[in-house]
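Chain A, query sequence.
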Amino acid sequence: MGHATYSRESKRNRQAYSQLRDQIQQAYQNQYVAMALGKVIGAADSLDGARELVEHLDPVPEYYLVFPGGTEPDFDLAYDLSWSR
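Chain A, predicted structure.
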């Protein structure tokens, strides 16, 4: 993933999270939340489960975010997990 894609998608997810923050923290308190394409994709009981929700999209987004629903996500962390597919 290039820097431009990362910057664009990170910005979309930040904006979406900013608008949905309270709803996410209340609805997904004990789950992992998956965000991609500027929206909540879903939530699961585990990190891997939330990743699977995103990886079942067609096409799979180049950038997505998974975080515990009761916490603030760290938008500045970036991991390349393409090796694990």
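Helices lie at 3-27, 47-55. The first strand starts at residue 32 and ends at 36.
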